[in-house]
Write a structure and sequence with these properties.
The protein is globular. The N and C termini lie far apart (29 Å). Helix content is 29%, strand content 27%. It contains three helices and seven strands; from the N terminus they run βαβαββββαβ.
Length: 100
C-alpha cells in the first residue's frame, strides 16, 4: 500500500514554502499567515496521512532551516518516527544546513 503524504506550505505567490510544496506535489495545502487563519486552515486538513511535511519560513534562520520532530493539535502531541538524524545528514551532504 502506498504511503499517503501531505505537503503543506504557506500562502503567498512569492512565499518560498508555497513554491516548494507546489514543486513537490500538485496535491498540496497552503495555510494562511495569521493565527486565526492558521487554526482554521489546520482544522480543515484531513487527518488520514501517514506522513506530513510542513514547510514554513523562520526569518531568524538564514542559510539553514530547522527540522521539527513534534507537533501539537487539540492538546495531542504528535511525534515523528522518521529518522531525522539521517535526514539532516542527507541535507548536509547536499550542502544544506539544518538543525533538529
Amino acid at each position: 500500500m502506498a504511503t499517503r503524504e501531505a505537503y503543506i506550505g504557506f500562502k503567498g505567490r512569492n512565499n518560498s514554502s508555497s513554491i516548494l510544496v507546489n514543486a513537490l506535489s500538485k496535491k498540496h495545502y497552503l495555510l494562511t499567515n495569521s493565527f486565526v487563519g492558521l487554526k482554521r486552515d489546520i482544522d480543515k486538513l484531513p487527518a488520514d496521512y501517514d506522513v506530513v511535511y510542513l514547510f514554513g519560513v523562520d526569518k531568524n534562520l538564514i542559510g539553514s532551516f530547522r527540522i521539527e520532530q513534534c507537533a501539537e493539535k487539540d492538546g495531542t502531541h504528535l511525534v515523528t518516527n522518521l529518522d531525522l538524524k539521517s535526514l539532516a545528514e542527507k541535507l548536509s551532504s547536499n550542502g544544506i544546513k539544518s538543525t533538529i
